[in-house]
Amino acid sequence: MQEFLSITKALSDENRVRILMALNSGELCVCQIIELLHLAPSTVSKHMAILKQARLVEGDKNGKWVYYRLAGDSAPRAVAEAIDWAKKHLVSEQVVKSDAQNLKSILKQRPVEVCKKQKASRLARLVKETAVAVVASRGTA
Q1: pLDDT for the residue numbered 131
Q2: First and final C-alpha spacing in the chain
Q3: Would you kindly state where each structural domain of the chain is located, as residue ranges?
Q4: Among 3.30.70.141, 1.10.10.10, 1.20.5.170, 3.30.470.20, what is the CATH number of 2-109?
Q5: Alpha helices in 2-110 (DSSP H)
Q6: Digit-coded pLDDT (tens) for 84-118
Q7: What percent of the chain lies above the pLDDT cut of 70?
Q8: For 51-71, how does the pLDDT look when each residue is reduced to its tens digit (9 = 90+)?
């Protein structure tokens, strides 16, 4: 029963299903998943933990990089069937097709470059937010 509930919980979120469908193309670094979904790293990390708990994905850490792939041959039968079911029924969904196209351009970049771009973007956003807060505090002082 617990295995079934873990799988259904993992499949109950659109972003987690999008991650599963993206992993259908092969192993992805977390930064590539972040780039695809345009979500915060902490949000993607939480989604990956739920998928991993359900045993739908497997992950390996290589230095500071974490790579995920769909569960392999050693996965329980229910997991393999859930993955096959999702693939069969979602392959024609527009969001899945769009993700596949976006993933092609993401995969043309090295993961380290994707990660650097994300860090620069987060830093720029932080600087902007800080500047706005400083200006706002001067107006109230």
Answers
A1: 72
A2: 59
A3: 2-109
A4: 1.10.10.10
A5: 2-10, 14-23, 30-37, 41-53, 77-90, 94-107
A6: 999 999 988 999 999 999 999 998 988 777 777 77
A7: 94
A8: 999 999 999 998 888 999 999
Beta-bridged to residue 28, according to DSSP, are 68
User: 15 burial class (0-12, 13-18, 19+ CB within 10 angstroms)?
Assistant: middle
Rg (CA), the chain: 18
Is the CB of residue 51 less than 8 Å from the CB of residue 21? no
Beta strands in 5-55 (DSSP E): 28-29
For residues 137 and 18, the model is more confident at 18
* pLDDT of 123: 67
Tokens standing for residue 34: 């972040």
Kindly state the tokens that stand for 118: 């994300």
The amino acid that residue 34 corresponds to is: I
What's the CA gap between 106 and 32, in Å, rounded?
Answer: 7
- Residue whose pair of structure tokens reads 């359900």 in the numeric block: 54
What the block records as the tokens of 10 is 């993992």
Residue tagged 């932080």 (tokens) = 126
